[in-house]
Design goal:
With about 325 residues, the protein is α+β, with helices and mostly antiparallel strands. It contains eleven helices and twelve strands. It has two domains: about 140 residues, Beta-Lactamase (2-Layer Sandwich), CATH 3.30.450.20; about 160 residues, Alpha-Beta Plaits (2-Layer Sandwich). Helix 8 crosses helix 9. The chain binds guanosine-5'-triphosphate. The site of guanosine-5'-triphosphate (GTP) has 16 residues, from strand 6, helix 8 and helix 9. This is diguanylate cyclase.
Amino acid sequence: MSSTAEDMMELHWLFDMLQHIDVGLVVLNEKYEIKLWNSFMENHSGMSSSIAKERSLFEVFPSINSEWLQRKLDNVIALRTPIFVSWEQRPHLFPFKSYRPITGIADKMYQNIALRPITNADGSVKYVCMVVYDVTDVAVSKESLSSANRKLDRLSKTDPLTQLQNRGSLDKTMGSAFHSFQIDHGSYSLVMGDIDFFKKINDQHGHPVGDLVLKNVSKLIASSIRSSDFVGRYGGEEFVILLPNTDADSALFFSEVLRRKVADAKIATGNTEISVTMSFGVSQLKRTDHSVSDWLNRADGALYKAKAEGRNQSILAR
Ligand SMILES: Nc1nc2c(ncn2[C@@H]2O[C@H](COP(=O)(O)OP(=O)(O)OP(=O)(O)O)[C@@H](O)[C@H]2O)c(=O)[nH]1
């Protein structure tokens, strides 16, 4: 076979392979008209090469942000350098369906796109080749990993019984508030609440009813705070509420409203209804507090006093 015939055959092979490679290939001219549309693009768009060719890419896919892509394509031609667009910047350019049966996360194919200048024999660049990689598997596993990490992070901060913040998470939140106070000297208050005679509830009705009471009280507290407040379960039947932008008197007012709500609530346990009361200690963060413990200890001291003085009351630490 002559070398020209061999070259022709090689060219034919190459063209055949590019047509059927599992990667999208599109060639555009300077007017963004489609000059090449391989079988990957045909299969995923449902549009044959004969129909796509000579039409503007933006007419075929009106959902593509034409201003953004035109700028990129113009740069590829002017600077003669390739540009890459990752799925993390833009999940997809072409709105192709994903046929992955594994997950509901991806209904569209995630794509990495390379825009490459095609250099003519005379060195000029008049065409751009778009290479479209289907990276749905990579994107989906990365997304599921991030979602699993988010879930783990949430779990590590949550008390499983009450779904409130756990003690560790609350300690961190109070630490952040203490740190902010050193900068803004704002008003930050703590309300520490404890269910009265909780041991009796366990003893009289059993531990599962005790748990039910804890869950109900937690819901009541959670529904009483503002979105900027924090509440956590600090110990067995002890709760701490952190109120930013709240001075001592307002925190005491909040505590009394909550105390009355708890006392008025009826908790259905199946065959009977239970009522509980709570005692509260309130403290506002002061410049003389050297640590979160100082602030917390003052609330704890006030709570101890509320218990000693008859329970079902709130006491403010001065
Ligand atoms: N059901 C249930 N009980 C708990 C849980 N955590 C702690 N407790 C119980 O809560 C009770 C707390 O009792 P005490 O510390 O004596 O306090 P109290 O009976 O509430 O009395 P005062 O606080 O003095 O009013 C103990 O019996 C603990 O076993 C829990 O997760 N579920």
